[in-house]
Request: fold
Amino acid sequence: MSDIIKPTKAVAENGPYIFADILDFKGLQDIVVNHRIDWLIHFSALLSAIGEQNVPLAVRVNIEGMHNVIELAKQYKLRVFVPSTIGAFGPESPRNPTPNVTIQRPKTIYGVSKVHAELMGEYYHHSFGLDFRCLRFPGVISSDPPGGGTTDYAVAIFHEVLRTGRYECYLKPDTRLPMMYINDCLRALWQYMVTPKEKLKRRVYNVTAMSFTPEELTAAIAKHVPEIRISYRPDSRQHIADSWPQVFDDSEARHDWGWRHEYDLDRLVLAMLEDVKKQYIT
Ligand code: VAH
Reply:
């Protein structure tokens, strides 16, 4: 793993970790050569909400960073994975369901940068034979702290409810968004990366597990935390969520390379309550 921030104890003890700045092309070359890197999994990006607060930085990290990564992959013939997102669609796209191929006019710099990443990756694949692979993820739910995404209410609610019993949600109760538990996200990534290229009909696939609303998530949590109290105060992130898919059609991934999710809403809630409780047991 690599980043520009220090690893947590768990990450540092889990395998090799190195400083890498995707804006430093020479530094990336040094790592690829000296560590004989063959696959590059590129997750660095400013997510939807935080990108709107710092567009120049989002352009540098999400677009200039992608240029470095895709050029590096071409130069050293790396297999490269770049995630895309439900945020790569916009209000003109069909929202329920949203198919793999349809109009993409996202209204966030995050979404614009991810459409750019999809198109650049496909171009390098078709023009230079680069083994570029991309999955459009829904909101990915894990016990890691929220990372500036619009879907991160579904992460923050678990931390807040276990600490105080209450949570003020920044989206309306009926805001439906596609979601996935982190274990399904990582398994989809691995399964897709090891799939023989002959099975791939395209290089950008939608994947998802479920779609839920804040009120549906609250009801599922209440089965285990009956004292939960939720209030709603929509903010600018509501406008972003209203431009996104409500239900993701991932039938092509399920047909072409056998994608299957394993976590539905009830199983996600059980896993998240367990994961987050561990963080508060001192
Ligand atoms: C965000 N979690 O909310 C990210 C994601 C589905 C959107 O890419 O910005």
Summary: The chain has one domain: 38-280.
